[in-house]
Design brief:
Helix content: 25-40%
Bound molecules: S-adenosylmethionine
CATH superfamily of the largest domain: Vaccinia Virus protein VP39
CATH class of the largest domain: Alpha Beta
Strand order of the largest sheet: 1-7-8-6-5-2-3-4
Strand content: 15-25%
Number of helices: 8
Largest sheet: 8 strands, mixed
Radius of gyration: 19 Å
CATH architecture of the largest domain: 3-Layer(aba) Sandwich
Oligomer: single chain
Length: 255
């Protein structure tokens, strides 16, 4: 960004920044508020890397994207984020995938469309009935409990549903050993409190194969998620945030 020809991040540029009324006006009235929302993240300490670099072995792969126009990026992932997740599946040649947090099932459907015929996806969400009491601490927006009538709606009746197994319960109290692992990829996107993300990550590491890929959503956007993921620095190989997304990714040690 240049103000009157000033070099970006030069001393004069910083001095001019708060005085540029045109710039402030443009910030407050974006042409594309979605893009603005996607650029205002500041949590988390992980290095940022391009997905095609992290998933270099998969960069030339083709992906199957189903229902691409039926995504809700405020509750789910963006189209670019789901493409990055699918590149991750290709990178580790995933056949067994676990997702924590189903929501309407668009990501689940795409996971199932990108595993081999004999592969499968297990997706976990809170029970469809009852008051969804949570075992661990979670406040306000971190709770993230979605409309119960929509859970998994996007894969119902689709051929890919034969490769999807739904599990209902609180991720903090379920026995993850019964999910059918070890898994090649685990995508953590359930309750967004610090306690839940730490608990889900510890349990995930117990059922992920060595060299398997762990992904988290809402990194950098949510302080609680970012702090929890950052606490696993040094415990996974290549832990980083994926550029242009709210995804963090790392590989289980010991491959
Ligand atoms: C952000 S949405 C998941 C989005 C989905 N992964 C996608 O990409 O479209 C979070 C989901 O996690 C579920 N959830 C919240 N707390 C949970 C918990 N403690 N255990 C299991 N699921 C939980 C919510 O009901 C909600 O459907």
């Amino acid at each position: 960004m240049r103000f009157g020809g000033l070099r970006r991040y030069s001393l004069k540029w910083w001095i001019a920044l708060p005085f540029s009324l045109g710039h402030i006006y443009r910030r407050l009235s974006p042409k594309d508020p979605t893009i603005q929302g996607m650029t205002f993240w500041w949590h988390g300490e992980l290095p940022r890397r391009p997905a095609v670099e992290v998933f270099d072995a998969a960069a030339g792969s083709d992906l199957r994207l189903l229902n691409p126009g039926r995504r809700d990026p405020s509750t789910s992932t963006t189209l670019f984020e789901v493409a990055c997740i699918l590149l991750g599946l290709r990178q580790v040649e995933a056949a067994r995938v676990l997702e924590i947090g189903t929501f309407d099932g668009n990501t689940t459907l795409n996971l199932a469309a990108n595993v081999p015929e004999d592969g499968f996806v297990v997706t976990v969400d809170l029970p469809l009935e009852g008051d969804s009491d949570l075992a661990l601490q979670a406040e306000g927006r971190e709770r993230n409990v979605t409309d119960r009538t929509r859970v998994g709606e996007q894969f119902q009746g689709r051929p890919e549903a034969s490769r999807i197994r739904q599990v209902f319960g609180d991720s903090a109290t379920l026995d993850w050993g019964e999910f059918g692992g070890p898994f090649d990829v685990i995508f953590i996107d359930g309750c967004h409190s610090y306690d839940y993300v730490v608990s889900d990550t510890e349990r995930a590491l117990g059922v992920l194969r060595p060299g398997g890929l762990l992904l988290w959503h809402d990194y950098a956007e949510m302080e609680s998620v970012s702090r929890a993921v950052d606490s696993f620095r040094g415990k996974l190989d290549g832990l980083c945030a994926l550029e242009g997304t709210r995804l963090a990714a790392g590989f289980k040690k010991g491959a």
